[in-house]
Amino acid sequence: MQGAEPTPIPDAARAADAAESGGPAPRSAATASGGPGPDGSRGSRSEAEAPHGPLPDGVRQRVIALAADGLGAMPPDEIPVPLRQFARFTPSRRAKLAATPLAGVLENDPVFRQRIAERLRRALPDLAAALESGRPPAAADPLDVAAAAYLLRPPGWVTLLDTAGQAAEKAAHDRAGAEQAAVVARLESELAALRASTKSEHDKVRAELDEARKETEQLRRQVRGLQGAAKHAEKEAKHAKSELDAVRAEAQASVAAADKEARRLRGRVSEAESALEASRRAAREGRSMEDTRVRLLLDTVLEAAQGLRRELALPPVGIRPADTVDAVEPEASGTKDIAQRALEGDDPALLDQLLALPQAHLVIDGYNVTKTGYPSLALSEQRVRLLGGLAVIAAQTGCEITCVFDGAQLDAPVLLAPPRGVRVRFSKAGETADELIRRLVRAEPPGRPVVVVSSDREVADGVRRAGARPVPSTMLLRRLARG
Predict the structure, then answer these.
(1) Burial 372-387 (b: 16+ CB within 10 A, else e)
(2) Beta bridge partners of 42
(3) Over 159-189, what HEC string results?
(4) pTM, whole model, 2 decimals?
(5) Average pLDDT of the chain to the nearest whole number
């Protein structure tokens, strides 16, 4: 431990440690104190000297760092037993964790210390030679000089150790003072900058505060003006409310008078209607009497004529004036001809006959046809397939074709290029395709042949009343299938 006198180690114990570690036997105390050694020579008296106090922290750390670095390069048999468990550590970790054992072994094991000193002598031969001669270099680091003096222990090493330790402490104190002065200077500059920044911020905040005060005063004036306007508006609102109440009361009185007059007029209208109904009834009764007399006279004349015909036995008339005109008469139709003209309810031949009429207009209920013929397809595919077939019919017949789709089933506007000869229309929002078809039929002039394709009974009845000819969707599908 630092600051404590080293405990003498008996020669036998040193020999046993050396034998256990496999290294050479350490020198005896006599050799360390200047007595005869194993080879008959006498050691230096400097080995028996001891420092006057504990090593300075900087010197102690430098000595432990040199010992930790040298411990890693020693053969296992030369490493002292207390330090063998730290031999596998890195030098930095070894210096940190084995500081106390290293200090104790260096102090108590001269052999280990001399081995570390030999490594130092090989690493720093000039410094070692200068210390041996008693003239340490002035430019050397005081910590290196003190550590080398402690390990090499030349004559007067305690004095060198004290002198170098004091120089190292003075250098450390000077460095600390310089660092503190630099820190103080840096802090003073930062404080000055902070004061300048604080003053600038203070001036800026004061200017902003003055501006805010001006804005606040302006806002207060605006608020006072708005409060005055609000009071004036409230006064006008009260006045308007009173006028409204007066107008409402006058209107209620007018409504009451109007209701009274309406009830009086309804009474007079009821009276007039009663008088009119009585006059109509009287007129009907008078007309009925006259009609009865006329009918009686007519029946009398008819019965007299029939009696005269029976009395005269006149034959029925078999010829008419038109029969006397000379012309070519058509041949009578036979059973075969009647069968050829008979058509089924959805026979596409009937549709061909209707489309052959002059200026025929074919109107199709689009989704009614597609959902009847191919309901499994998507709506877009249904439209494309139907319009393709209608283009063929338009090219074959030359008639006008309008295909109507329900716009309520669309999520967005349809991008569609209708084929040539086919008009495509979608119903507007709130309108069905049936209503659009009826409007198209009503738009046509009376007498034009209009054919509406839809299996919807309501659509068929509506267009029939408007003068168009409805046909079922299956008729158009059979016509499209025929191509």
Answers:
(1) bbeeeeebeebbeebb
(2) 36
(3) HHHHHHHHHHHHHHHHHHHHHHHHHHHHHHH
(4) 0.34
(5) 77
